[in-house]
Design a protein that fits this description.
Blueprint (H helix, E strand, L loop, with lengths): L16 H21 L10 H15 L3 H14 L4 H17 L4 H14 L5 H12 L3 H17 L5 H19 L2 H14 L7 H16 L3 H12 L14 H17 L2 H11 L7 H10 L8 H14 L4 H13 L10 H17 L2 H18 L4 H13 L5 H13 L9 E2 L5 E2 L20 H22 L3 H14 L4 H10 L8 H14 L3 E2 L2 E2 L1 H18 L3 E6 L5 H9 L16 E5 L5 E5 L4 E4 L1 H9 L3 H6 E8 L8 E4 L8 H13 L2 E7 L9 H8 L4 E7 L6 H15 L3 E6 L2 H9 L10 H12 L2 H40 L5 H20 L1 H12 L15 H28 L4 H24 L2 H9 L7 H24 L2 H42 L4
Parallel strand pairs: 5-10, 5-11, 6-9, 11-12, 12-13
Antiparallel strand pairs: 1-2, 3-4, 6-10, 7-8, 7-9
Helix pairs in contact: 1-3, 1-5, 2-3, 2-4, 3-4, 4-5, 4-6, 5-6, 6-7, 6-8, 7-8, 8-9, 9-10, 10-11, 10-12, 11-12, 12-13, 12-14, 14-15, 14-16, 15-16, 16-17, 17-18, 18-19, 18-20, 19-20, 20-21, 21-22, 22-23, 22-41, 23-41, 24-25, 24-34, 24-41, 25-34, 26-32, 34-41, 35-37, 35-40, 35-41, ...
Bound molecules: guanosine-5'-diphosphate and magnesium ion.
Amino acid sequence: MTNGSDDHPKDDPAGPANTLRSVGSALGGWAKRVGKAITEVAGPQQPEEVSRALTQAHDLRRAGQFATAHERLQAPIKTRPNDPSLLLSLALTLIEQALVTPARIDVLSAFAEGLGKRGERNVGGPLVEATEHLLRSEFDASLDALRRARKLLDELGGSLQPETRFVFHLLTTLAQAHRGRHERALLELHKTRARLPEGTHGPLRQLLIAEGAQISLAAESVDEAIAWLSSEAEPPTASDGQPATPSDDARTAHAYLALALAAKGDRLGSEAALAKVDSDDPAWDELRIRIGLCLGTGPESQPERTRELALRHLQRASEDPRRQRLWALAEAATWPSSGAATPIAGRSACLDALATAARAAPADLLERHLHELAHLSLRADLRPPNIVAAIRKQLRDSPTAPEEIRLVHVRKRLEEHDEQVGEDFLPGPPPRFRAQADLGGPWGPDEISPIRDAGSRLTVVRSQRALASAELCLQRNLPEAAQEYLVEVLTEFPEHEHARALLTELARPVESNRLEDLLTAATTLLAAMPGRILGVPLSGVQDALSGVIAARERLARPLTIAIMGEFSSGKSTFINALLGEAVAPMGVLPTTSTINLFRRGPSGSARVHYRDGSIATVARDEVHTFLQHLDDIEASRIRHMEIERTGSRLGEAAVVDTPGLNALDTFHERVTREFVEEADAIIWIFSATRGGAASEGSALKSVSADGRQVLGVLNKVDTLDAEERVELVTYLREQFGQILLDVLPISASAALTLRTAEGNHSDDPFVAVEDALERHFFERARELKRSLTTRRLADALGHAREVVLAAADALDAKADDAARGDASDPGQLEFRLVSFADTVYGQILGLDDVLTRECLALGILRAGSAPARAFLAPQDATYLAAVLRDSILRALQTALADLTQTPGADALADVLTGRLVPWANGFLDSLDSSGFVASLVIEHGPTVAKGEAALRERYRVALQPVAASWRKFIRGLFRHIRQAHRQARHTAASAPRAEALRLRTTTVASLDAVLGSLERVAP
Ligand SMILES: Nc1nc2c(ncn2[C@@H]2O[C@H](COP(=O)(O)OP(=O)(O)O)[C@@H](O)[C@H]2O)c(=O)[nH]1
Ligand SMILES: [Mg+2]
């Protein structure tokens, strides 16, 4: 409230003010004359003529006819220019008129000047002065004048005293209110209301209603305002029994009642009250805007309409800081949950408007205005230098300034890369914004301030704390922690643009394209992923991680070659020839053969890996016998064998002997595929004795499908003649040229004989095989391994990506469910609360029993007779007080426990636990200190003579007020519960949404980044 002209709705230039102004100007000249006249001395008597004039002027003022009252006083003052009562009456007339028609301050000035010259100790003088200052927005000077008036007022008697007191309090109320002292103004308002002269109606009453309503609302006395305005709005019926016709006064009261109801969040009530105003007069625009702003956060509010109205209102007086603020708040109310989505120009115009309003605000309200400005600066995510400067100054002047003010400062510090910013954070790790334990008040300058909505204020504060923490983590290179904080932000504000952008940045591409680095990056990435987010499992991620870890291990392991081919094509014989030792059992039936992995090692022993996961060791000497004598049943129990080979041929490479993909056992076939999958290269053995090579085509294709290199060997060529040999080799080369590196004709059995025999074998037919292995596999081992690892890593990441996207979908679906479902109406909650309150009420009343029993047990009272003593021993009093306290708290806990088990009552239980329990303790403390129990026993104890039932009844009656106040307090918590419920619902929907977003942006983007780098991996 920056100047008087805005304080009631009748301020429109086109309104009735014009007429009043001309009256005022006519009065101006007159007042000058009066000023001169009052230098003469007044007589002590008050003749009939004077008192009649005073009464009539008074009545005229009550009717709001100030000009007429003025006229009525003219004649008597002419004859008695120094009569103090006449002068005071005139002063009151001028003051009241000036207050409702503030345009004519000069009338007052002239009058005050006249009085001042006279040196008259007339209370009218300082009152007029106070009014003058008030209308000039010189509130301190006005209060000074009022202090002077107060002294004279105490000496004042006579018929004018009550009205003078009323005017005095009214002026004090207005001066305090406009100065920003809401509490003081509210106190004064009570006095003013109590002294409002009977019969006052018209503009003065409307002024009181308008100002009073605004003061009460600014001071958060909403309920009181509603009660008062309701009585103003529905004045008692006229004496003739007819309902009073709706007057302008009632209309004003209805209008402000609508505002008060809106401030309480009662949309329907507010609309009903506003309907009674029934006027499209732009004079009511401000009020409509205020109502719209109060209802702004409600589900059925119309922020767009309020915004249009506010714009129209601003256009009529665009320099007015008060209108600027209304407009800015109405604009901000249309911002999406995070203001950042609105164009910067729009956002910064709002902040500028609020800064203007803050500058124009009285000193006492500056912090509240800056608090509001800080809140919107945070929501707008804009920190213009002038605003930051104002906010920093406030922070210096008032270190206990609200947290939003500090948040703006800290976010700016972060933006400036201020080294000292750490002092605003708890050291961590990770650092966390040093939050204020209690957000406390003051909450904004008045009822329209968005920070009055505790829920949305908390949302902004929480998200900004997390955002500041995230920004610091980013600066300190703590991306994981930053990510967690950003998810916190998005849980509060799912659309928060800045947080989304930072999340995306966090998923920046991996710098390296070294395979090892990418493996590390993938491992870290997958390992950091939780197995479950808000109940949605990401179980596949674990598999992907295992895949990456396995791929990493394999990269370090020696080359592994799997020997494949159909049954009895000579795979085992080939392996033995290759290794130069008969380690693999040959000529074994498919049903009794196992998958054998030959690894270089010192002992020559074997490990048997059973299907059930158990492992047995077979000593070197027994390996051969073990393998040769496996029966069907034993063989089927074995997953695979791991056999150490001691020979030095083939270096460190490992060889896998497989029964073939057409194994009879599906389990073994699966294990075979796993081994093939693990192998770095394949040797495929064709048998020259079998013509059906074509049937091997599909199996061959499948093993080479993921780029695995396959070398073909045509075995048993000893059974062919030279021509057939060439023919078959040519055929295979033609047939499988795409898949096979080469086809080498050999005789494994001949080679084995030769290589295991003593002596030098210069004509070793296996030289060609070894050459080929060297050329195709060993020389390229690194490359082979790396390309396979790259492919495996890509597979694992691709799989993880699918899992993550599916989880994100599931989280979104969960959010949708939460948003749609559980629209459990607050009515249901209210019902539960009321029944909870009733339960507690009943339980407290039920303590009559406990008290009676304890008193009897202690022997303080004896059944059927008068009490032993008329006083209670201190230890008994203490004990009884403790019993009562325990019993009440236990009753409360039982009731609470029931509630926590009620589905959907979480919000209810939380609020009750958070608010009721501390209150209950305080209440019980005060019961203790007031000696409640002792007085109860002493007062009602004697009733025991009339029997236990009578005593119990007495106790019950005595406990009744206690029970009632508990019930009342509990019922009064409904507002908090609705708030908590709304918050819980918001979080239920927005938390999964935020997590889904994180998965899509950061996680998937990080996976994509590694996948992208994999494509460019260095050989
Ligand atoms: N004629 C001939 N027979 C062979 C040759 N290599 C292996 N065999 C025989 O083919 C049968 C199956 O050999 P084996 O190595 O157990 O085949 P696998 O089932 O593929 O492991 C055995 O009887 C071997 O003696 C070869 O080069 N020439
Ligand atoms: Mg074999």
